[in-house]
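User: Please fill in residues for this 128-position structure.
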């Protein structure tokens, strides 16, 4: 998820650069896209931190985001939108699939469940 956040930061920088150099459509729309990508990057870093700290909301958020990536990849598959190039299809497709596989690998599930169990035990001890 942190790598996806980094990729979103790079995309935001590309939009800003395109806007400042006049390579894109209009400066306002490119800055708007850059701000949207910055917001999504911050969200991905937040989800990444939540996964690292075993927060209950983080795994469903990661799954939802990556399912959306797969839908996006399908919508820009080669032959549907040719101007975007194949990277618009393969990048989100590979990121989404790899992350979903990693989130549901048995060692990942065991580690996440163990982290949640430790947090629950610590909360229970603190309540006593």
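Assistant: Residues filled in for all 128 positions:
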């Amino acid at each position: 998820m942190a790598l996806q956040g980094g990729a979103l930061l790079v995309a935001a920088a590309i939009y800003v650069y395109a806007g400042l150099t006049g390579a894109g459509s209009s400066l306002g729309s490119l800055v708007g896209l850059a701000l949207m990508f910055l917001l999504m990057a911050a969200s991905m870093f937040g989800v990444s931190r939540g996964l690292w700290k075993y927060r209950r909301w983080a795994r469903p958020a990661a799954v939802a985001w990556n399912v959306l990536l797969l839908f996006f990849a399908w919508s820009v598959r080669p032959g549907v939108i040719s101007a975007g190039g194949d990277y618009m299809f393969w990048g989100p497709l590979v990121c989404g699939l790899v992350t979903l596989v990693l989130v549901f690998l048995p060692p990942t599930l065991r580690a996440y469940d163990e982290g949640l169990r430790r947090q629950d035990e610590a909360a229970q001890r603190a309540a006593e």
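For context: The two ends are 36 Å apart (CA to CA).
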